[in-house]
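stage 2 :: seqdesign
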């Protein structure tokens, strides 16, 4: 069942989206879906954005692993 569209998005909703790393275009699309009552579309956008953030975390973890390995190798080579 679709919910009634809201006239204006609460500032807290926009702030939460921005705090979650959503850019202006994503916020605009999310709010447009909210106005039409398309909760499934909103959820789809949030899931996609979440996956992008998670991919960034995994990329960062891999980079940290590479640095840790480099430090390990350097310490091993320079051990007295």
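stage 2 :: out
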């Amino acid at each position: 069942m679709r919910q009634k569209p809201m006239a204006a998005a609460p500032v807290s909703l926009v702030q939460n989206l921005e705090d979650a790393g959503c850019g202006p275009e994503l916020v605009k699309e999310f709010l447009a879906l909210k106005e039409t009552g398309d909760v499934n579309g909103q959820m789809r956008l949030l899931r996609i954005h979440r996956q992008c953030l998670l991919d960034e975390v995994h990329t960062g973890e891999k980079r940290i692993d590479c640095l840790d390995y480099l430090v390990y190798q350097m310490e091993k080579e320079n051990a007295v």
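stage 3 :: structure notes
- Residues 1-6 have pLDDT under 50 and may be disordered.
- DSSP finds three helices and no strands in the chain.
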